[in-house]
Design goal:
Layout: H1 6-13, E1 18-22, H2 28-41, E2 49-53, H3 56-76, H4 79-91, E3 96-99, H5 100-110, H6 112-115, E4 122-123, H7 126-147, H8 150-158, H9 162-177, H10 182-191, H11 198-202, H12 205-234, H13 238-253, H14 262-268, H15 275-284, H16 300-323, H17 328-360, E5 362-363, H18 365-376, H19 379-388, E6 391-394, H20 402-412, E7 416-421, H21 435-446, E8 452-456, E9 458-459, H22 464-477, H23 480-483, E10 494-495, E11 507-513, H24 514-517, H25 528-546, E12 548-550, E13 557-559, E14 565-569, H26 576-585, E15 590-592, H27 602-615, H28 620-628, H29 636-645, H30 658-668, H31 670-692, H32 695-706, H33 708-713, H34 718-737, H35 743-756, E16 770-774, H36 775-778, E17 783-789, E18 803-806, E19 810-817, E20 820-823, H37 825-850, E21 853-863, H38 866-873, H39 879-884, H40 888-897, H41 903-908, E22 922-927, H42 940-952, E23 963-965, E24 973-975, E25 977-979, H43 980-983, H44 1005-1018, H45 1027-1039, H46 1045-1049, H47 1053-1061, H48 1063-1070, E26 1074-1085, H49 1086-1090, E27 1097-1110, E28 1113-1120, H50 1130-1135, H51 1138-1152, E29 1156-1163, ...
Parallel strand pairs: 1-7, 1-8, 2-3, 2-6, 4-5, 6-7, 9-10, 11-21, 11-22, 14-16, 14-17, 15-16, 17-21, 25-27, 28-29
Antiparallel strand pairs: 12-13, 18-19, 19-20, 23-24, 26-27, 27-28, 29-30
Length: about 1200
């Protein structure tokens, strides 16, 4: 039997309606499962239980746990009770334990007649419904335009044109459908524009919320001035402090004193009871004419106080500008007919879309909920489910929306409900989840109205040090005003593990000030994500060398693995690839889901390109992709030959496509021609089959014929890649269900759903690697070691859309009239409401991220100007100030700097220490590592854009060393992609003899070079390096299958050990940052690189053997195994490689924005380093 806490046992045993507020790691699923088992042991049938959640995976896991618990209970019981429990366990698979959508579908299948559905209705996939809705929208828009003039044309123009208007209208449509009665909500939204006077508008609910924001902003600025005043007083600046002190004293006692100075008057505004009073107060507002006497004070304290006063004045001026504008009613009247047009259009769109779904015999996910709710409003249907289900459970209740809540209430009338969730983990507002529903029920049950509240706060996941850090932060920042939730003793986590609970600090905050590393650089493009990733790699290596962990599966202690680490990012899309590549460049294997959607998976892209050229062969980009893929089997040089050997005839220059080149090659014969002919024969065969088969059958045939599915299955993540390809058959089946069966129709269909991005991310996977994921994707997961990056990324600004929606306030519009965007009062009010909700959700996102960690939490913050960030975090952490702060970094730093935990950072920036208790976070500054953006590679998006741009030109094609002819006097043949080694040039000396250490029988000189480079790339630098250790390491590579034994036996272990014992090797070992085998793609001017008479660019590729940092600058080394022949000096041999070294130097400086101070050729044959000279 588990050792339940008192609260857990109460949640299992209590009768009636329960709301279980379950903190992170509190075992809520185990409690829910135990409660169901308890009910069945007490005589209830498994069929009397309804248990719903929000994902198929969660529902499957729930069934598995319940079945397992019932079977275990049966094994412990005897007689009839054992049989009853076994019977219940067998019945779990058919029990009503599912997603809410699945339950809704069951209701509709049983009562299709009440729902007005065909008995054979089906649930269409997102792609099909997106097309049906798009068709309805396009038809309706065309009809409205055909009528000419009127409000519709003004609406579309006001929303920024057809494309912008479509996105805006869909956003309102989706929001309306999340409401219980969409049409009633639209009517109520329109009625908001009926205010008949300014006075009425200023006393409305919309004005109250907007006024709250204005006052909170002014209050925050006043708090900042109060803090600046306190600092002045502590420093002995009594006169200016006294001036501000007098203002504050007057504000507290004589709030409306006629001679009050600026701060008094500002604080008097906070007494306003409604927006009308605020507008009047601002209209009459004026700063006093008195001037503050600084008494000669200069420096940062005066600057801080001046800044606080300026900020306060600006905040009040902005408030005055808005509240005293006086044109609210006029703007509302201008907008009303357009909002009426919008609401009418959305209703008609919904009706037309519904008709198309009816004709197709399908429903969408929104229909499931609305039609199910409509059925449950019919008394006989509602009573049927109320009688059947005596106990209703819902997991993740905090993610419920109003329609789902109404369904729940309809089913549960007369039943006991068990609702479990954690509102602190409600982070799906973008999916229209409404955490206010949880909080309202929480407040009601807390007062004993309708049910009982139980809080589960013992955390069985995290180390005590992690829990202490979480609690200390959220006690400070998460309150009802700023976070919609009061993080009090009831909400705080309690340590629940049974491993002793040592009060050791297990949370770290590391500030990486990039100004330190950039002190000598005029400009840098170093990405903060790359800096954080490089620091993360350094910390991962440290922890793997020093810590061990208890394995969750075996219970035994073991060394750390890469898969014990997870990197969580708030801004995932723009930085995950940089993180993955930078970690890899620093010796840490990592995996990130880089594709934005299903269609970005490489296997899907290639196969879709095959379908495209079957449909139309004269598409150059898809054809080039297929030729270069395993399906076509052409390598880069063969594609070059197709380009150069089969140019367009003079009469065909305008329409000579790649398919013509392939045909010409097939006709010419030869090895390449035979390969081209085989390809063309296959393609023609596929084209003929496409005429006979539907898209689904054709895809299945192609997967069998090409073997591409098996090829992808053998790649990393092969099972998932193969599933992505098989999913194309499912897409084709859905397309056929919508009445489109041909290949051309399928391709058109897929282009539309690709644009709509309805299929989500592709399926991929990794093994013993560091996982990189978004914080949202990490919800429900846990990891031994969690690294949070991107803390300094700003929050997304609300209110940037032309149409914004809110449940109570309706629709706010910002419409374009001529060159001017006119915001309605409601747009401002809704933006303020959404901003408050967004701030609260950002707090919850940070809470989710921090509570994923089991053993250690590492928070990394790269700042391009650390002093500026620290200064912004020094503002007093009042609720008003917290609302205005716009990054995790400022919240965390503000919390840390107000305690002795932040004294190391305070000392770094010249701030006096504080002596408040520590906050259980080890905070420190570290030098920003010299990181290469993207691990030394060109950004993938830019690279793909570059290649596609090349391919779009008739004389420049994808796949390798393609050339382009320029109409310049020099008529230069310019390659689009070159390797550094192909450009190294220089004097060619006859040095045909192998090096003395490379003369072993059957070992080619090139193999020795490869072997030396392999050892120099992999050799550990944190252990003594001797001739013996190098030889043993080489043998280890042999055992790992990474090196041939003959080559390993001939490896120059003595020469390699000599390098590390020499001056250059010792410098490398002492360096704070070392990079080995740095691959790069760099776009560089052809004029600079080749002396070509053109301003075009060339893609330069190469691998830098080694570079390390000294005093913020790079030292670069290129390893060579050349033999130094008689009568030649080391300089003579090295000099022929200087051109290559110069290119490496250029690449490294441009990729990192840092100077390369020294460059060396190291000759292993004689153990000498030759420094590169610019004037060689």
């Amino acid at each position: 039997m588990p050792n339940w806490t008192a609260e857990q046992q109460r949640a299992i045993d209590a009768n009636g309606n329960l709301l279980v507020s379950a903190g992170a790691g509190s075992g809520k699923t185990a409690v829910l499962t135990a409660r169901i088992v308890r009910l069945i042991r007490g005589g209830e049938s498994i069929n009397s239980v309804l248990c719903v959640t929000f994902t198929n995976a969660a529902a499957a896991e729930m069934k598995k746990r319940i079945e397992k618990s019932l079977a275990r209970a049966a094994a412990e019981a005897n007689g009839e009770e054992a049989e009853k429990l076994y019977r219940a366990a067998r019945g779990v698979s058919a029990a009503s334990i599912s997603t809410l959508h699945s339950f809704c579908t069951q209701v509709l299948r049983r009562h299709f007649n009440l729902a007005g559905l065909d008995p054979a209705f089906r649930v269409a996939d997102a792609g099909e419904t997106a097309i049906l809705r798009q068709n309805a929208y396009d038809e309706l828009v065309e009809e409205r335009y055909a009528l000419g003039g009127g409000s519709f044309n003004l609406l579309m123009e006001g929303l920024g044109g057809d494309e912008a208007a479509e996105d805006a209208i869909y956003s309102v449509y989706d929001f309306a459908r999340s409401q219980i009665d969409p049409y009633a909500w639209l009517d109520a939204a329109l009625s908001q524009y009926d205010a008949d006077s300014e006075e009425a508008l200023l006393r409305s609910g919309a004005a109250a919320g907007l006024m709250k924001k204005s006052l909170a902003n002014i209050s925050a600025r006043c708090d900042a001035l109060q803090s600046a005043r306190n600092d002045l007083m502590q420093d002995g600046a009594e006169k200016p402090a006294a001036f501000i002190d007098g203002e504050l004293l007057t504000a507290r006692s004589l709030l409306l004193c006629t001679n009050a100075a600026e701060l008094v008057t500002a604080r008097a505004l906070l007494l306003c009871q409604n927006a009308a009073e605020l507008a009047a107060a601002l209209e009459a507002f004026a700063f006093g004419k008195g001037r503050i006497n600084w008494d000669g004070l200069e420096g940062p304290l005066r600057m801080a106080a001046d800044t606080a006063r300026t900020d306060m004045k600006k905040e009040i001026a902005d408030a005055r500008k808005f509240w005293c504008a006086g044109d609210y009613i006029e703007t509302m009247r201008l907008h009303r007919p357009l909002i009426a047009e919008l609401c009418g259009f959305i209703k008609e769109l919904d009706e037309r879309y519904a008709q198309k779904k009816l004709e197709a015999g399908c429903i969408d996910y929104g229909d499931m909920e609305h039609k199910c709710l409509a059925v449950l409003k019919i008394p006989e249907a509602r009573e049927e489910y109320s009688r059947r289900f005596k106990h209703v459970f819902m997991d993740e209740y905090q993610d419920c929306n109003p329609v789902q809540e109404s369904i729940l209430k309809s089913i549960a009338s007369g039943s006991s409900t068990f609702l479990v969730g954690d509102v602190k983990q409600s982070i799906y507002r973008f999916r229209l989840a409404e955490p206010a529903l949880f909080m309202q029920r929480y407040a009601d049950y807390q007062r004993g109205n309708g049910g009982e509240l139980i809080c589960l706060n013992h955390n069985f996941r995290s180390a005590c040090g992690v829990i202490n850090a979480v609690n200390s932060l959220f006690f400070r920042i998460m309150h009802r005003e700023a976070g919609e939730i009061e993080y009090d003793d009831e909400a705080a986590l309690k340590f629940g593990r049974n491993d002793g609970g040592e009060d050791e600090t297990r949370a770290e905050f590391i500030l990486l000030d990039m100004m330190d590393a950039q002190a000598d650089a005029e400009e840098t493009e170093t990405d903060t994500a790359a800096v954080e990733a490089a620091a993360a790699a350094r910390r991962i290596h440290e922890l793997m060398d020093t810590e061990r962990i208890t394995d969750a599966a075996t219970g035994e202690e073991r060394p750390l693995k890469y898969s014990d680490f997870a990197v969580l990012l708030r801004s995932y899309k723009g930085s995950a690839e940089t993180w993955m590549r930078t970690l890899a460049a620093n010796g840490v294997p990592a995996y990130a889901l880089l594709s934005d959607g299903y269609f970005d998976a490489i296997e899907v892209r290639v196969f879709m390109d095959l379908l495209r050229i079957i449909d139309n062969r004269r598409q150059d980009i898809p054809l080039a992709a297929v030729l270069r893929s395993p399906i076509g089997g052409f390598d880069e040089r063969e594609l070059i030959a197709l380009k150069t050997d089969f140019p367009a005839p003079p009469e065909r220059e305008d329409d000579w496509a790649w398919i013509d080149r392939v045909n010409a090659a097939a006709a010419a014969g030869g090895e390449l021609g035979q390969k081209a002919k085989r390809f063309m024969d296959k393609l023609e065969y596929y084209r003929q089959e496409a005429k006979l088969l539907g898209a689904e059958a054709l895809i299945g045939m192609l997967l069998d014929e090409t073997g591409y599915g098996e090829y992808c299955a053998a790649m990393p993540g092969g099972r998932q890649r193969q599933a992505n390809l098989e999913a194309l058959c499912e897409r084709a089946r859905g397309c056929a269900a919508a009445g489109v069966r041909s290949l051309g129709g399928f391709l058109s269909y897929m282009e539309k759903v690709s644009a709509a991005n309805v299929y989500g991310a592709p399926q991929t996977g990794g093994a013993n690697v560091v996982s990189i994921m978004s914080i949202h994707a990490s919800k429900g997961l846990e990891f031994p070691y969690v690294i949070i990056g991107g803390l300094n990324s700003g929050f997304v600004r609300e209110g940037m859309d032309n149409l914004v929606c809110e449940k109570e306030l309706g629709i706010g519009a910002r419409l374009i009239s001529g060159e001017i965007k006119r915001k309605s009062f409601l747009h401002e009010a809704i933006t303020a409401a959404l901003s408050a909700k967004a701030t609260a959700e950002e707090m919850r996102v940070l809470y989710v991220a921090m509570t994923r960690a089991r053993e250690r939490l590492i928070m990394l913050c790269a700042a391009k100007n650390g002093a500026k960030l620290v200064n912004s975090a020094l503002a007093p952490q009042t609720q008003s100030s917290i609302i205005m702060q716009k990054s995790f970094a400022v919240w965390l730093l503000g919390h840390i700097l107000n305690s002795k935990s932040g004294n190391e950072i305070r000392a770094k920036y010249g701030l006096k220490p504080v002596f408040e208790p520590d906050v259980h976070i080890y905070a420190r500054c570290e030098p920003a590592p010299l990181a290469m953006p993207g691990g030394g590679r060109m950004d993938e998006g830019k690279y793909n854009e570059f290649v596609r741009d090349a391919l779009a030109n008739a004389d420049k094609k994808q796949g390798g060393f393609f050339t382009r002819t320029y109409a310049h006097a020099a008529d230069v043949e310019l390659p689009t992609k070159l390797s550094v080694t192909s450009l190294s040039g220089g004097e060619q000396m006859e040095l045909t003899d192998a090096s003395s250490f490379a003369r072993e029988e059957n070992v080619a000189p090139a193999q020795f070079g490869t072997a030396v480079h392999e050892i120099m790339r992999r050799l550990p630098l944190d252990k003594p390096i001797t001739e013996r250790s190098v030889a043993e390491f080489a043998q280890g590579l042999v055992k790992a299958g990474l090196m041939d034994e003959t080559v390993a036996d001939a490896v120059p272990a003595r020469n390699i050990a000599a390098f590390f014992s020499g001056e250059l090797g010792q410098r490398l070992l002492r360096a704070e940052t070392v990079r080995r085998e740095v691959e790069f793609n760099l776009r560089i001017g052809a004029r600079e690189l080749l002396g070509a008479d053109t301003d075009e660019t060339v893609l330069l590729q190469g691998i830098i053997d080694c570079c390390f940092a000294e005093n913020g600058e790079w030292v670069l080394i290129d390893y060579k195994t050349d033999r130094v022949a008689q009568n030649y000096s080391a300089y003579d041999v090295a000099k022929k490689h200087f051109a290559q070294l110069r290119l490496y130097k250029t690449a490294l400086e441009r990729l990192t924005g840092r100077k390369v101070r020294q460059s060396y050729i190291y000759l292993f044959s004689i153990g000498k380093a030759v420094e590169y000279s610019e004037d060689f």
